[in-house]
Amino acid sequence: MRNLDQNTITDAVLARFADTPDPRLKTIITSLVRHLHDFAREVELTEAEWEKGIDFLTRVGHITDDKRHEFILLSDVLGLSMLTVAMNQDKPRGCTEATVFGPFHVEGAPHYELGDDIANGAAGTPCVVRGTVRGLDGEPVANARMDVWQSDHDGLYDVQHPDLDHAQARGILHTDDQGRFHFRSVVAVPYQIPHDGPVGQLLDATNRHPWRPAHLHFKIDAPGYESLITHVFRNGDPWLDSDAVFGVRESLVADWVEQDDGTYLLEFDFVLNRKD
Amino acid sequence: MRNLDQNTITDAVLARFADTPDPRLKTIITSLVRHLHDFAREVELTEAEWEKGIDFLTRVGHITDDKRHEFILLSDVLGLSMLTVAMNQDKPRGCTEATVFGPFHVEGAPHYELGDDIANGAAGTPCVVRGTVRGLDGEPVANARMDVWQSDHDGLYDVQHPDLDHAQARGILHTDDQGRFHFRSVVAVPYQIPHDGPVGQLLDATNRHPWRPAHLHFKIDAPGYESLITHVFRNGDPWLDSDAVFGVRESLVADWVEQDDGTYLLEFDFVLNRKD
Protein backbone atom coordinates (compact mmCIF):
# COMPACT_ATOMS: atom_id res chain seq x y z
CA MET A 1 0.00 0.00 0.00
CA ARG A 2 3.04 2.28 -0.28
CA ASN A 3 4.41 3.59 -3.56
CA LEU A 4 1.15 3.31 -5.48
CA ASP A 5 1.46 4.55 -9.03
CA GLN A 6 -1.17 5.89 -11.38
CA ASN A 7 -2.18 2.37 -12.41
CA THR A 8 -1.84 0.36 -9.20
CA ILE A 9 -3.76 2.89 -7.12
CA THR A 10 -7.16 1.83 -8.48
CA ASP A 11 -6.92 -1.74 -7.18
CA ALA A 12 -5.56 -0.44 -3.87
CA VAL A 13 -8.57 1.85 -3.46
CA LEU A 14 -10.97 -0.96 -4.40
CA ALA A 15 -9.27 -3.27 -1.88
CA ARG A 16 -9.97 -0.67 0.80
CA PHE A 17 -13.68 -0.82 -0.07
CA ALA A 18 -13.68 -4.64 -0.04
CA ASP A 19 -15.25 -4.88 3.41
CA THR A 20 -18.30 -2.76 2.57
CA PRO A 21 -21.12 -4.65 4.31
CA ASP A 22 -23.97 -3.62 1.99
CA PRO A 23 -23.41 -5.49 -1.29
CA ARG A 24 -25.31 -2.90 -3.32
CA LEU A 25 -23.20 -0.04 -1.94
CA LYS A 26 -20.08 -2.11 -2.70
CA THR A 27 -21.23 -2.59 -6.31
CA ILE A 28 -21.89 1.13 -6.71
CA ILE A 29 -18.68 2.38 -5.10
CA THR A 30 -16.59 -0.15 -7.04
CA SER A 31 -18.01 0.97 -10.37
CA LEU A 32 -17.76 4.62 -9.34
CA VAL A 33 -14.07 4.37 -8.39
CA ARG A 34 -13.20 2.48 -11.59
CA HIS A 35 -14.92 5.04 -13.81
CA LEU A 36 -13.61 8.03 -11.86
CA HIS A 37 -10.03 6.76 -12.11
CA ASP A 38 -10.44 5.71 -15.75
CA PHE A 39 -11.76 9.19 -16.54
CA ALA A 40 -8.78 10.88 -14.85
CA ARG A 41 -6.29 8.62 -16.62
CA GLU A 42 -8.02 8.91 -19.98
CA VAL A 43 -7.87 12.71 -20.01
CA GLU A 44 -4.57 12.83 -18.07
CA LEU A 45 -6.16 15.23 -15.64
CA THR A 46 -3.76 17.95 -14.51
CA GLU A 47 -3.57 19.22 -10.95
CA ALA A 48 -4.89 22.62 -12.07
CA GLU A 49 -7.88 20.92 -13.72
CA TRP A 50 -8.47 18.82 -10.60
CA GLU A 51 -8.53 22.06 -8.59
CA LYS A 52 -11.01 23.60 -11.01
CA GLY A 53 -13.21 20.53 -10.64
CA ILE A 54 -13.12 20.73 -6.85
CA ASP A 55 -13.95 24.43 -7.03
CA PHE A 56 -16.81 23.83 -9.49
CA LEU A 57 -18.42 21.17 -7.28
CA THR A 58 -18.01 23.37 -4.22
CA ARG A 59 -19.77 26.25 -5.97
CA VAL A 60 -22.57 23.92 -7.09
CA GLY A 61 -22.99 22.92 -3.45
CA HIS A 62 -22.89 26.46 -2.11
CA ILE A 63 -25.60 27.82 -4.43
CA THR A 64 -27.89 24.92 -3.52
CA ASP A 65 -30.59 25.54 -0.91
CA ASP A 66 -34.10 24.26 -0.26
CA LYS A 67 -35.40 26.16 -3.28
CA ARG A 68 -32.51 25.83 -5.72
CA HIS A 69 -31.15 22.40 -6.53
CA GLU A 70 -28.01 22.97 -8.57
CA PHE A 71 -26.78 19.34 -8.37
CA ILE A 72 -30.11 18.20 -9.88
CA LEU A 73 -29.63 20.83 -12.58
CA LEU A 74 -26.09 19.56 -13.22
CA SER A 75 -27.35 15.99 -13.45
CA ASP A 76 -30.09 17.22 -15.81
CA VAL A 77 -27.78 19.01 -18.27
CA LEU A 78 -25.36 16.07 -18.30
CA GLY A 79 -28.24 13.77 -19.25
CA LEU A 80 -27.82 11.66 -16.10
CA SER A 81 -31.32 12.44 -14.82
CA MET A 82 -33.03 11.39 -18.05
CA LEU A 83 -30.78 8.31 -18.31
CA THR A 84 -31.84 7.28 -14.81
CA VAL A 85 -35.51 7.86 -15.65
CA ALA A 86 -35.16 5.88 -18.89
CA MET A 87 -33.62 2.91 -17.07
CA ASN A 88 -36.17 2.85 -14.28
CA GLN A 89 -39.36 3.89 -16.04
CA ASP A 90 -39.38 1.52 -18.96
CA LYS A 91 -43.14 1.06 -18.80
CA PRO A 92 -45.28 -1.25 -20.94
CA ARG A 93 -46.54 0.08 -24.26
CA GLY A 94 -49.72 2.06 -23.70
CA CYS A 95 -48.63 3.64 -20.43
CA THR A 96 -47.86 7.34 -20.28
CA GLU A 97 -44.10 7.80 -20.47
CA ALA A 98 -42.13 9.34 -17.62
CA THR A 99 -39.62 12.15 -17.83
CA VAL A 100 -37.32 14.11 -15.52
CA PHE A 101 -38.51 15.33 -12.14
CA GLY A 102 -36.65 18.61 -12.44
CA PRO A 103 -35.47 20.87 -9.64
CA PHE A 104 -38.69 22.87 -9.04
CA HIS A 105 -41.01 20.43 -7.31
CA VAL A 106 -42.00 21.56 -3.82
CA GLU A 107 -43.47 19.28 -1.15
CA GLY A 108 -46.67 20.52 0.44
CA ALA A 109 -48.25 22.40 -2.45
CA PRO A 110 -51.78 23.72 -1.76
CA HIS A 111 -54.77 21.42 -2.25
CA TYR A 112 -57.43 22.38 -4.78
CA GLU A 113 -60.86 21.14 -5.81
CA LEU A 114 -61.48 20.10 -9.40
CA GLY A 115 -62.22 23.21 -11.43
CA ASP A 116 -60.13 25.52 -9.24
CA ASP A 117 -57.56 27.92 -10.64
CA ILE A 118 -54.15 26.68 -9.49
CA ALA A 119 -52.45 29.74 -11.02
CA ASN A 120 -53.34 31.52 -7.79
CA GLY A 121 -52.25 34.85 -9.20
CA ALA A 122 -49.45 33.67 -11.50
CA ALA A 123 -49.16 35.80 -14.66
CA GLY A 124 -50.15 34.20 -17.93
CA THR A 125 -52.82 33.44 -20.49
CA PRO A 126 -55.68 31.54 -18.83
CA CYS A 127 -56.18 27.94 -19.80
CA VAL A 128 -58.16 24.90 -18.79
CA VAL A 129 -56.47 21.52 -18.43
CA ARG A 130 -58.61 18.40 -18.43
CA GLY A 131 -58.44 14.69 -19.03
CA THR A 132 -58.63 11.31 -17.36
CA VAL A 133 -56.34 9.04 -15.43
CA ARG A 134 -56.78 5.37 -16.37
CA GLY A 135 -55.02 2.04 -15.93
CA LEU A 136 -53.65 -0.04 -18.79
CA ASP A 137 -56.93 -1.92 -19.20
CA GLY A 138 -58.83 1.34 -19.55
CA GLU A 139 -60.17 1.29 -16.01
CA PRO A 140 -60.63 4.79 -14.56
CA VAL A 141 -58.39 5.58 -11.58
CA ALA A 142 -60.58 7.36 -9.07
CA ASN A 143 -59.15 9.69 -6.45
CA ALA A 144 -55.67 9.68 -8.00
CA ARG A 145 -53.49 12.31 -6.40
CA MET A 146 -52.19 14.75 -9.02
CA ASP A 147 -49.35 17.07 -8.04
CA VAL A 148 -49.10 19.72 -10.77
CA TRP A 149 -46.51 22.46 -11.18
CA GLN A 150 -45.35 24.85 -13.89
CA SER A 151 -43.70 28.16 -14.60
CA ASP A 152 -45.61 31.39 -15.11
CA HIS A 153 -45.74 33.61 -18.19
CA ASP A 154 -42.24 34.93 -17.42
CA GLY A 155 -40.83 31.41 -17.45
CA LEU A 156 -40.32 31.44 -13.68
CA TYR A 157 -41.60 29.04 -11.04
CA ASP A 158 -43.03 30.60 -7.89
CA VAL A 159 -39.92 29.63 -5.90
CA GLN A 160 -37.83 31.72 -8.28
CA HIS A 161 -39.67 34.91 -7.27
CA PRO A 162 -37.75 35.94 -4.15
CA ASP A 163 -40.54 38.12 -2.73
CA LEU A 164 -43.41 35.70 -3.30
CA ASP A 165 -44.59 34.14 -0.03
CA HIS A 166 -47.24 31.75 -1.37
CA ALA A 167 -47.53 29.00 -3.95
CA GLN A 168 -48.45 29.95 -7.52
CA ALA A 169 -49.05 27.69 -10.51
CA ARG A 170 -48.69 24.56 -8.42
CA GLY A 171 -51.22 22.46 -6.56
CA ILE A 172 -52.59 19.08 -5.62
CA LEU A 173 -55.89 17.77 -7.03
CA HIS A 174 -57.66 14.42 -7.01
CA THR A 175 -59.50 12.75 -9.87
CA ASP A 176 -63.23 12.13 -9.51
CA ASP A 177 -64.86 8.70 -9.38
CA GLN A 178 -64.59 8.42 -13.18
CA GLY A 179 -60.84 9.20 -13.08
CA ARG A 180 -61.52 12.63 -14.56
CA PHE A 181 -59.74 15.88 -13.69
CA HIS A 182 -59.99 19.49 -14.76
CA PHE A 183 -58.45 22.65 -13.45
CA ARG A 184 -57.55 26.13 -14.55
CA SER A 185 -54.05 27.54 -14.83
CA VAL A 186 -51.96 29.63 -17.22
CA VAL A 187 -50.44 28.56 -20.52
CA ALA A 188 -46.95 27.08 -20.17
CA VAL A 189 -44.13 28.95 -21.93
CA PRO A 190 -40.57 27.94 -22.79
CA TYR A 191 -38.03 29.05 -20.22
CA GLN A 192 -34.34 29.07 -19.47
CA ILE A 193 -33.11 26.84 -16.65
CA PRO A 194 -31.36 28.91 -13.96
CA HIS A 195 -28.07 29.83 -15.59
CA ASP A 196 -26.66 32.46 -13.25
CA GLY A 197 -24.70 29.82 -11.33
CA PRO A 198 -21.99 27.24 -12.00
CA VAL A 199 -24.22 25.09 -14.25
CA GLY A 200 -24.93 28.19 -16.35
CA GLN A 201 -21.18 28.79 -16.60
CA LEU A 202 -20.74 25.23 -17.83
CA LEU A 203 -23.43 25.77 -20.49
CA ASP A 204 -21.78 29.06 -21.55
CA ALA A 205 -18.33 27.50 -21.76
CA THR A 206 -19.67 24.69 -23.94
CA ASN A 207 -21.83 26.83 -26.25
CA ARG A 208 -25.05 25.27 -25.01
CA HIS A 209 -28.36 27.09 -24.65
CA PRO A 210 -30.35 26.85 -21.40
CA TRP A 211 -33.83 26.56 -22.92
CA ARG A 212 -36.52 24.05 -22.07
CA PRO A 213 -39.65 23.73 -24.23
CA ALA A 214 -42.92 24.81 -22.58
CA HIS A 215 -44.33 22.07 -20.34
CA LEU A 216 -46.58 21.26 -17.43
CA HIS A 217 -45.32 18.91 -14.68
CA PHE A 218 -47.39 16.08 -13.25
CA LYS A 219 -46.71 13.62 -10.44
CA ILE A 220 -49.61 11.17 -10.23
CA ASP A 221 -50.02 8.67 -7.39
CA ALA A 222 -52.76 6.14 -6.80
CA PRO A 223 -52.89 2.96 -4.71
CA GLY A 224 -52.06 -0.12 -6.76
CA TYR A 225 -50.33 1.88 -9.50
CA GLU A 226 -46.74 2.96 -10.11
CA SER A 227 -46.12 6.62 -9.41
CA LEU A 228 -45.87 8.60 -12.66
CA ILE A 229 -43.60 11.65 -12.90
CA THR A 230 -43.89 13.32 -16.25
CA HIS A 231 -44.49 16.52 -18.25
CA VAL A 232 -46.89 17.45 -21.00
CA PHE A 233 -44.95 19.47 -23.59
CA ARG A 234 -46.49 22.14 -25.79
CA ASN A 235 -46.67 21.27 -29.46
CA GLY A 236 -44.92 23.73 -31.78
CA ASP A 237 -42.40 24.88 -29.20
CA PRO A 238 -39.09 25.85 -30.84
CA TRP A 239 -37.06 23.97 -28.20
CA LEU A 240 -38.75 20.58 -28.43
CA ASP A 241 -35.76 19.14 -30.31
CA SER A 242 -33.05 20.61 -28.11
CA ASP A 243 -34.42 20.54 -24.55
CA ALA A 244 -31.49 21.51 -22.29
CA VAL A 245 -32.25 18.53 -20.04
CA PHE A 246 -33.07 15.92 -22.73
CA GLY A 247 -36.57 15.25 -21.36
CA VAL A 248 -38.83 15.34 -24.44
CA ARG A 249 -40.93 12.29 -25.41
CA GLU A 250 -42.97 12.49 -28.60
CA SER A 251 -45.88 10.85 -26.78
CA LEU A 252 -45.92 13.69 -24.23
CA VAL A 253 -46.33 16.51 -26.77
CA ALA A 254 -49.85 17.97 -26.92
CA ASP A 255 -51.74 21.01 -28.19
CA TRP A 256 -52.90 23.88 -26.04
CA VAL A 257 -55.85 24.84 -28.29
CA GLU A 258 -56.97 28.45 -28.44
CA GLN A 259 -60.66 28.96 -27.68
CA ASP A 260 -63.02 31.63 -29.01
CA ASP A 261 -62.56 33.74 -25.89
CA GLY A 262 -58.75 33.79 -26.21
CA THR A 263 -58.18 31.27 -23.46
CA TYR A 264 -56.65 27.86 -24.14
CA LEU A 265 -57.63 24.26 -23.58
CA LEU A 266 -55.25 21.35 -23.02
CA GLU A 267 -56.74 17.87 -23.06
CA PHE A 268 -54.48 15.03 -22.00
CA ASP A 269 -55.18 11.53 -20.72
CA PHE A 270 -52.76 9.62 -18.50
CA VAL A 271 -52.36 5.85 -18.34
CA LEU A 272 -50.74 4.42 -15.23
CA ASN A 273 -48.89 1.13 -14.92
CA ARG A 274 -50.24 -1.30 -12.35
CA LYS A 275 -47.86 -2.25 -9.55
CA ASP A 276 -46.66 -5.86 -9.62
CA MET B 1 -33.52 14.41 -29.98
CA ARG B 2 -36.94 13.17 -28.80
CA ASN B 3 -37.54 9.69 -27.41
CA LEU B 4 -33.98 9.11 -26.26
CA ASP B 5 -33.54 5.78 -24.54
CA GLN B 6 -30.99 4.67 -22.00
CA ASN B 7 -28.46 3.90 -24.72
CA THR B 8 -29.06 6.63 -27.32
CA ILE B 9 -29.01 9.41 -24.74
CA THR B 10 -25.22 9.36 -24.35
CA ASP B 11 -24.53 10.25 -27.98
CA ALA B 12 -27.27 12.89 -27.84
CA VAL B 13 -25.62 14.53 -24.83
CA LEU B 14 -22.19 14.39 -26.48
CA ALA B 15 -23.65 15.94 -29.64
CA ARG B 16 -24.87 18.85 -27.51
CA PHE B 17 -21.31 19.41 -26.26
CA ALA B 18 -19.89 19.21 -29.81
CA ASP B 19 -19.55 22.98 -30.18
CA THR B 20 -17.42 23.46 -27.07
CA PRO B 21 -14.83 26.02 -28.23
CA ASP B 22 -11.98 24.99 -25.91
CA PRO B 23 -10.71 21.63 -27.20
CA ARG B 24 -9.36 20.62 -23.79
CA LEU B 25 -12.71 21.27 -22.10
CA LYS B 26 -14.40 19.31 -24.88
CA THR B 27 -12.06 16.36 -24.27
CA ILE B 28 -12.73 16.44 -20.54
CA ILE B 29 -16.50 16.82 -20.73
CA THR B 30 -16.76 14.09 -23.38
CA SER B 31 -14.85 11.59 -21.25
CA LEU B 32 -16.77 12.66 -18.14
CA VAL B 33 -20.19 12.18 -19.77
CA ARG B 34 -19.20 8.78 -21.19
CA HIS B 35 -17.93 7.51 -17.84
CA LEU B 36 -20.81 9.00 -15.87
CA HIS B 37 -23.38 7.36 -18.16
CA ASP B 38 -21.45 4.07 -18.31
CA PHE B 39 -21.33 4.03 -14.50
CA ALA B 40 -25.09 4.60 -14.23
CA ARG B 41 -25.87 1.90 -16.80
CA GLU B 42 -23.36 -0.56 -15.33
CA VAL B 43 -24.90 -0.42 -11.85
CA GLU B 44 -28.43 0.16 -13.19
CA LEU B 45 -28.74 3.16 -10.91
CA THR B 46 -32.21 3.46 -9.37
CA GLU B 47 -34.00 6.76 -8.94
CA ALA B 48 -33.74 6.42 -5.14
CA GLU B 49 -29.97 5.91 -5.44
CA TRP B 50 -29.71 8.90 -7.78
CA GLU B 51 -31.53 10.98 -5.15
CA LYS B 52 -29.14 9.73 -2.45
CA GLY B 53 -26.21 10.72 -4.64
CA ILE B 54 -27.61 14.21 -5.20
CA ASP B 55 -28.21 14.57 -1.47
CA PHE B 56 -24.68 13.33 -0.64
CA LEU B 57 -23.02 15.80 -3.00
CA THR B 58 -25.20 18.62 -1.68
CA ARG B 59 -24.16 17.84 1.88
CA VAL B 60 -20.50 17.70 0.85
CA GLY B 61 -20.95 21.16 -0.63
CA HIS B 62 -22.79 22.57 2.36
CA ILE B 63 -20.19 21.52 4.95
CA THR B 64 -17.41 23.03 2.84
CA ASP B 65 -16.14 26.49 3.80
CA ASP B 66 -12.83 28.32 3.64
CA LYS B 67 -11.42 26.13 6.41
CA ARG B 68 -13.01 22.77 5.62
CA HIS B 69 -12.66 21.31 2.15
CA GLU B 70 -14.94 18.30 2.02
CA PHE B 71 -14.71 17.80 -1.76
CA ILE B 72 -10.91 17.58 -1.45
CA LEU B 73 -11.42 15.05 1.34
CA LEU B 74 -13.82 13.08 -0.86
CA SER B 75 -11.31 13.11 -3.71
CA ASP B 76 -8.63 12.02 -1.23
CA VAL B 77 -10.50 8.99 0.15
CA LEU B 78 -11.50 7.89 -3.37
CA GLY B 79 -7.83 7.94 -4.39
CA LEU B 80 -8.44 10.57 -7.06
CA SER B 81 -6.11 13.11 -5.45
CA MET B 82 -3.17 10.70 -5.25
CA LEU B 83 -3.89 9.43 -8.77
CA THR B 84 -3.73 13.02 -10.05
CA VAL B 85 -0.47 13.63 -8.16
CA ALA B 86 1.00 10.37 -9.49
CA MET B 87 0.19 11.31 -13.09
CA ASN B 88 1.51 14.84 -12.83
CA GLN B 89 4.48 14.46 -10.50
CA ASP B 90 6.33 11.63 -12.10
CA LYS B 91 9.74 13.14 -11.33
CA PRO B 92 13.15 11.81 -12.37
CA ARG B 93 14.81 9.26 -10.08
CA GLY B 94 16.65 11.08 -7.33
CA CYS B 95 14.06 13.79 -6.85
CA THR B 96 11.96 13.87 -3.73
CA GLU B 97 8.58 12.34 -4.48
CA ALA B 98 5.38 14.34 -4.26
CA THR B 99 2.22 13.39 -2.44
CA VAL B 100 -1.26 14.79 -1.82
CA PHE B 101 -1.76 18.43 -0.94
CA GLY B 102 -4.50 17.66 1.56
CA PRO B 103 -7.29 19.95 2.72
CA PHE B 104 -5.44 21.81 5.51
CA HIS B 105 -3.08 24.13 3.69
CA VAL B 106 -3.75 27.80 4.39
CA GLU B 107 -2.49 30.68 2.28
CA GLY B 108 -0.69 33.42 4.16
CA ALA B 109 0.93 31.43 6.97
CA PRO B 110 3.29 33.45 9.22
CA HIS B 111 6.89 33.97 8.15
CA TYR B 112 9.66 32.69 10.40
CA GLU B 113 13.44 32.92 10.59
CA LEU B 114 15.52 29.76 10.50
CA GLY B 115 15.66 28.32 14.01
CA ASP B 116 12.26 29.72 15.04
CA ASP B 117 9.59 27.62 16.69
CA ILE B 118 6.71 27.34 14.21
CA ALA B 119 4.59 25.47 16.78
CA ASN B 120 3.64 28.93 18.08
CA GLY B 121 1.89 27.39 21.09
CA ALA B 122 0.64 24.15 19.50
CA ALA B 123 0.61 21.24 21.98
CA GLY B 124 3.14 18.46 21.47
CA THR B 125 6.58 17.04 22.13
CA PRO B 126 9.22 19.53 20.98
CA CYS B 127 11.33 18.60 18.01
CA VAL B 128 13.85 20.09 15.65
CA VAL B 129 13.56 19.60 11.91
CA ARG B 130 16.57 20.20 9.71
CA GLY B 131 18.01 19.36 6.34
CA THR B 132 18.89 20.78 2.96
CA VAL B 133 17.15 21.60 -0.27
CA ARG B 134 19.19 20.68 -3.33
CA GLY B 135 18.79 20.22 -7.05
CA LEU B 136 19.27 16.96 -8.91
CA ASP B 137 22.98 17.66 -9.47
CA GLY B 138 23.51 18.23 -5.78
CA GLU B 139 23.58 22.02 -6.07
CA PRO B 140 22.20 23.72 -2.94
CA VAL B 141 19.00 25.71 -3.52
CA ALA B 142 19.44 28.97 -1.62
CA ASN B 143 16.47 31.01 -0.44
CA ALA B 144 13.94 28.28 -1.30
CA ARG B 145 10.53 29.11 0.12
CA MET B 146 9.34 26.33 2.44
CA ASP B 147 5.70 26.35 3.46
CA VAL B 148 5.36 23.88 6.36
CA TRP B 149 2.19 22.70 8.11
CA GLN B 150 1.18 19.90 10.46
CA SER B 151 -1.27 18.82 13.12
CA ASP B 152 -0.67 19.25 16.83
CA HIS B 153 -0.38 16.58 19.52
CA ASP B 154 -4.17 16.07 19.44
CA GLY B 155 -4.07 15.32 15.74
CA LEU B 156 -5.74 18.63 14.87
CA TYR B 157 -4.58 21.40 12.58
CA ASP B 158 -4.93 24.94 13.88
CA VAL B 159 -7.91 25.59 11.57
CA GLN B 160 -9.75 22.73 13.28
CA HIS B 161 -9.68 24.54 16.64
CA PRO B 162 -12.74 26.79 16.36
CA ASP B 163 -11.58 29.26 19.03
CA LEU B 164 -8.00 29.65 17.85
CA ASP B 165 -7.45 33.00 16.17
CA HIS B 166 -3.82 32.61 15.09
CA ALA B 167 -1.70 30.15 13.11
CA GLN B 168 -0.11 27.25 14.95
CA ALA B 169 2.23 24.58 13.64
CA ARG B 170 2.41 26.19 10.23
CA GLY B 171 4.81 28.72 8.79
CA ILE B 172 6.95 29.91 5.92
CA LEU B 173 10.76 29.76 6.05
CA HIS B 174 13.56 30.22 3.54
CA THR B 175 16.70 28.13 3.14
CA ASP B 176 20.07 29.80 3.73
CA ASP B 177 22.72 30.32 1.06
CA GLN B 178 23.81 26.69 1.45
CA GLY B 179 20.24 25.43 0.91
CA ARG B 180 20.00 24.53 4.59
CA PHE B 181 16.98 24.88 6.83
CA HIS B 182 16.20 24.21 10.48
CA PHE B 183 13.24 25.02 12.64
CA ARG B 184 11.53 23.89 15.80
CA SER B 185 8.04 22.42 16.00
CA VAL B 186 6.21 19.53 17.71
CA VAL B 187 6.36 15.84 16.85
CA ALA B 188 3.76 14.80 14.26
CA VAL B 189 1.17 12.24 15.39
CA PRO B 190 -1.26 10.07 13.45
CA TYR B 191 -4.72 11.58 13.16
CA GLN B 192 -8.17 10.93 11.82
CA ILE B 193 -9.32 12.93 8.83
CA PRO B 194 -12.49 14.90 9.65
CA HIS B 195 -15.17 12.22 9.74
CA ASP B 196 -18.14 14.02 11.27
CA GLY B 197 -19.46 14.91 7.82
CA PRO B 198 -20.65 13.11 4.67
CA VAL B 199 -17.17 11.74 3.85
CA GLY B 200 -17.03 10.24 7.35
CA GLN B 201 -20.42 8.65 6.74
CA LEU B 202 -19.08 7.14 3.53
CA LEU B 203 -16.09 5.71 5.41
CA ASP B 204 -18.40 4.31 8.11
CA ALA B 205 -20.74 2.73 5.60
CA THR B 206 -17.82 1.04 3.84
CA ASN B 207 -15.98 -0.16 6.95
CA ARG B 208 -13.02 2.11 6.32
CA HIS B 209 -10.96 3.78 9.02
CA PRO B 210 -10.20 7.52 8.83
CA TRP B 211 -6.56 7.37 9.99
CA ARG B 212 -3.56 9.01 8.40
CA PRO B 213 -0.03 8.14 9.53
CA ALA B 214 1.87 10.95 11.27
CA HIS B 215 3.39 13.39 8.79
CA LEU B 216 4.72 16.87 8.22
CA HIS B 217 3.62 18.81 5.10
CA PHE B 218 6.01 20.74 2.88
CA LYS B 219 5.45 22.94 -0.14
CA ILE B 220 8.80 24.06 -1.50
CA ASP B 221 9.19 26.68 -4.21
CA ALA B 222 12.35 28.11 -5.75
CA PRO B 223 12.96 29.93 -9.05
CA GLY B 224 14.06 27.53 -11.79
CA TYR B 225 12.69 24.47 -10.00
CA GLU B 226 9.36 22.65 -10.05
CA SER B 227 7.22 23.26 -7.01
CA LEU B 228 7.31 20.29 -4.65
CA ILE B 229 4.28 19.40 -2.52
CA THR B 230 4.97 16.50 -0.24
CA HIS B 231 4.94 15.05 3.29
CA VAL B 232 7.58 13.45 5.47
CA PHE B 233 5.96 10.44 7.19
CA ARG B 234 7.02 9.13 10.59
CA ASN B 235 8.70 5.74 10.54
CA GLY B 236 7.00 3.10 12.71
CA ASP B 237 3.56 4.63 12.44
CA PRO B 238 0.83 1.95 12.56
CA TRP B 239 -1.10 3.52 9.66
CA LEU B 240 1.73 3.73 7.11
CA ASP B 241 0.27 0.80 5.16
CA SER B 242 -3.34 1.92 5.21
CA ASP B 243 -3.28 5.71 4.91
CA ALA B 244 -6.91 6.79 4.43
CA VAL B 245 -5.86 8.98 1.49
CA PHE B 246 -3.30 6.64 -0.17
CA GLY B 247 -0.46 9.16 0.11
CA VAL B 248 2.48 7.16 1.52
CA ARG B 249 5.73 6.86 -0.43
CA GLU B 250 8.48 4.66 1.04
CA SER B 251 11.03 7.33 0.13
CA LEU B 252 9.18 9.88 2.28
CA VAL B 253 9.30 7.84 5.51
CA ALA B 254 11.87 9.08 8.05
CA ASP B 255 12.77 8.77 11.73
CA TRP B 256 12.04 11.36 14.36
CA VAL B 257 14.96 10.42 16.65
CA GLU B 258 14.62 10.92 20.40
CA GLN B 259 17.40 13.02 21.94
CA ASP B 260 18.88 12.84 25.45
CA ASP B 261 16.66 15.67 26.66
CA GLY B 262 13.43 13.96 25.49
CA THR B 263 13.01 16.14 22.45
CA TYR B 264 13.19 14.75 18.90
CA LEU B 265 15.21 15.42 15.80
CA LEU B 266 14.03 14.90 12.22
CA GLU B 267 16.63 15.19 9.50
CA PHE B 268 15.40 15.18 5.92
CA ASP B 269 16.89 16.41 2.66
CA PHE B 270 14.80 17.47 -0.33
CA VAL B 271 15.81 17.24 -3.96
CA LEU B 272 13.95 19.45 -6.43
CA ASN B 273 13.47 18.87 -10.15
CA ARG B 274 14.70 21.61 -12.42
CA LYS B 275 12.10 23.26 -14.62
CA ASP B 276 12.40 22.52 -18.33
Task: Break the fold down into its secondary structure elements and pairings.
Two copies of one chain form a homodimer.
Chain A: H1 8-16, H2 23-43, H3 47-63, H4 70-77, H5 80-88, E1 126-135, E2 145-149, E3 170-174, E4 180-186, E5 191-192, H6 198-205, E6 211-212, E7 215-221, E8 228-234, E9 253-254, E10 256-258, E11 264-267, E12 270-272
Parallel strand pairs in A: 1-11, 1-12, 8-9
Antiparallel strand pairs in A: 1-4, 2-3, 2-7, 5-6, 7-8, 10-11
Would you mind describing this structure in some detail?
- 2 copies of one chain form a homodimer.
- Chain A is α/β, with parallel strands linked by helices.
- Chain A has 2 domains: 1-45, no CATH class; 74-272, Protocatechuate 3,4-Dioxygenase, subunit A (Sandwich), CATH 2.60.130.10.
- The first copy, chain A, is 26% helix and 21% strand.
- Chain A is built from 6 helices and 12 strands.
- The first copy, chain A, has helices spanning 8-16, 23-43, 47-63, 70-77, 80-88, 198-205; strands at 126-135, 145-149, 170-174, 180-186, 191-192, 211-212, 215-221, 228-234, 253-254, 256-258, 264-267, 270-272.
- In chain A, strands 1, 4, 10, 11 and 12 form a 5-stranded mixed β-sheet that branches.
Brief summary:
The structure is a homodimer of 276-residue chains. Chain A has six helices and twelve strands.
Distance N to C terminus of chain A = 48 Å
- Return residue spans of chain A where pLDDT drops below 50 for at least 5 consecutive residues: none
Helix content of chain A: 25-40%
Let me know the CATH homologous superfamily of the largest domain in chain A: Aromatic compound dioxygenase
Q: Outline of chain A, from the CA principal axes?
A: globular
Strand content of chain A: 15-25%
CATH architecture of the largest domain in chain A: Sandwich
**How confident is the prediction overall: mean pLDDT of chain A?**
96
- Given this structure, which CATH class of the largest domain in chain A is correct? Mainly Beta
Oligomer: homodimer
- In the CATH scheme, what's the topology name of the largest domain in chain A? Protocatechuate 3,4-Dioxygenase, subunit A
Major sheet characteristics of chain A: 5 strands, mixed
State Rg of chain A.
22 Å
Which pair has the most extensive contact? A-B, 75 and 75 residues
Number of beta strands of chain A: 12
Number of helices of chain A: 6
The secondary-structure class of chain A comes to alpha/beta
